[in-house]
Design a protein that fits this description.
- The structure is a homodimer of 242-residue chains.
- Chain A is an alpha+beta fold and 242 residues long.
- Chain A has 7 helices and 10 strands.
- In chain A, helix 1 packs across helix 3 and helix 2 packs across helix 3.
- The interface between A and B is large, with 40 and 40 residues.
- Strand 10 of chain A pairs antiparallel with strand 7 of chain B.
- Chain A binds a DNA duplex (19 and 19 nucleotides) through helix 3.
Chain lengths: 242, 242
DNA sequence: AAGTGGTCTAGACCACTAT
DNA sequence: TAGTGGTCTAGACCACTTC
């Protein structure tokens, strides 16, 4: 019934996702792990692995002694905060068909805070790229990325519209391994307000992030500001321990 | 009341956390799973379980074929967004010794939005409880909880300082199973500003949440506002697939 | 080629929830 | 008490990284 290469666990996940989407589970109750294992012809360990991953991504939850259950449809989270990698993808996950507008690419001197975050000397040159992500004509996300100029060795200006990790891959000799992000409240300044088409002073969520390569060296400092009315982050918090 | 018997997996986690905190791992490299299993005298499955949980909470990361590594100290996240359950606990995780001040408990008529969120009729009575969490004399979190009055059957006013889930457990015939939360940017109004000791209009992060019981019935509507300078949420985003 | 994490099996017993 | 998820064992082979 089940063959290789997408791992067995992934196939079990896909199978369960389909049945969940099809509303097959009476009362939201998913069959027991033992039952699933015997029906699908895999070990209980594999089933447990699949269920753990579905639980982790918010599709289901488990209650010891009671069973495994589907999360209510209204609770399905479209993009898990920890897994965001490309804002274009986030917008697609929300049902948008995003476009990207590169607002500017220029070289500037790093101020003290940026230099410190990027591990370079103050006033060292950085490339600043400002981009706007839109749904139709509505601006949704405004990002500013700053990369030390020393890391860039190509003619890169034409690639600015690529997702950042592809850009870094292509034009630096390294690749982005992870981001450290802070969720910061801001009030839109005149510049941001004009670009996001909202009044100046509007409160907004900003992700302040530093992107690192595999050696934990900072590569990029990014700020992203969101139109709260068009893109709002949600999460489910479920009591685990105790 | 609670007899804790730490599982093997939890003991392995604790052991590794200690060695990580002690900086024992040369170059951040953690011994292989097989090595840990034989040294600790447990199966590799148990070691893998412990490592998976440490990876999930951001303490370590794994690279297939290469090894398992400690996350940089600066990347340690003190409280994972999805696991917040009590703001007192969040503050303790940040090294604070929090106190709680109950600002008011009163009955009011639900407005349309609140009634809709709680599944009751507009103007139905709700109990509104406003609380402030402080570190020393600094206000850090301001929360407003609203529970339909019909759900409360006891004399409850004196218990308002308890964590909300304990309060619900004790005074309603149900208990909180999960929250659905939205991260919302706000500007502090005069009331909030005075309580949080910041200028009115300061941008802040607000969690707008609805708490549900096991039957997916809404029990409580909560708003929590944070002092950005005292409590900032961070997260690590690491590329997983592809 | 050697060593690592990733996947998978087939069992066993325990802790908890429901009825 | 029956059934569920939680923990744990002792193996096996595969995919990938590093040298």
């Amino acid at each position: 019934m089940i063959a290789r290469n997408p791992s067995l666990t992934e196939q079990v996940m896909a199978h369960l996702r389909e049945r969940i989407a099809g509303g097959e589970f009476e009362g939201g109750r998913i069959p027991s792990e033992a039952k699933l294992a015997s029906v699908l012809g895999v070990s209980r360990t594999t089933v447990r692995d699949a269920l753990s991953r579905l639980e982790h991504d918010g599709s289901i939850y488990r209650k010891q002694g009671a069973g495994t259950f589907v999360n209510e449809p209204g609770l399905q989270i479209r993009s898990r905060l920890e897994e965001i990698w490309s804002y274009e993808q986030v917008l697609r996950d929300h049902g948008y068909t995003p476009s990207v507008r590169v607002l500017g690419v220029l070289e500037e001197a790093a101020d003290a805070a940026i230099a410190s975050d990027l591990g370079i000397a103050p006033a060292d040159p950085v490339i600043a790229m400002e981009k706007l992500f839109l749904e139709d004509d509505d601006p949704v996300v405004l990002t500013m990325n700053r990369i030390p100029a020393a890391y860039l060795h190509d003619d890169f200006a034409e690639s600015a519209s690529e997702p950042l990790y592809e850009f870094v891959e292509a034009h630096c000799d390294r690749h982005l391994a992870y981001y450290l992000s802070e969720i910061v409240p801001v009030a839109l300044d005149d510049h941001q307000a004009a670009l996001l088409d909202e009044p100046a002073g509007t409160p907004a969520i900003c992700f302040e992030e530093i992107g690192f390569d595999q050696s934990n060296a900072p590569i990029v400092r990014a700020s992203s500001i969101f139109r709260d009315d068009l893109l709002r982050f949600r999460l489910i918090r479920r009591k685990t321990g105790a």
